[in-house]
Amino acid sequence: MTLAKELYDIEQGFWLEGKEHFLAHVDDRCLLAFPQAGEMHGVHSRAEVAATATTANRWRDLTMKDRHLLHDTEDFAIISYRAEVTRADGEPYAALVSSAYVRRLDGWKLACHQHSPV
Question: Would you tell me which of 48, 59, 78, 103 could form a disulfide with 44, CB atoms 3.0–4.6 Å apart?
Fold first, then answer.
């Protein structure tokens, strides 16, 4: 499996899977940068990030377009893409997204995640 496929598979899980995926793939601490104020912006623990994966805020019909990967060092990579997805309430959502990953002994972990709605 290529690094790009591995990271995009992990990333897709953050959109479509639940709390267990977050607990398995978020680093000990993760910087979130969302357009909303408050709890979705700043540095959070793995448990705090995983707690956001509730049924009420889940997504469906995800498409990731215009994918990019920056991987200049062995243990750090950044992906970026345009997400088109449907919210649980049926509303469409589109954003430019970037995620930074660090390689740990047990695999790639999300260290930073950012949305810019389009």
Answer: 48
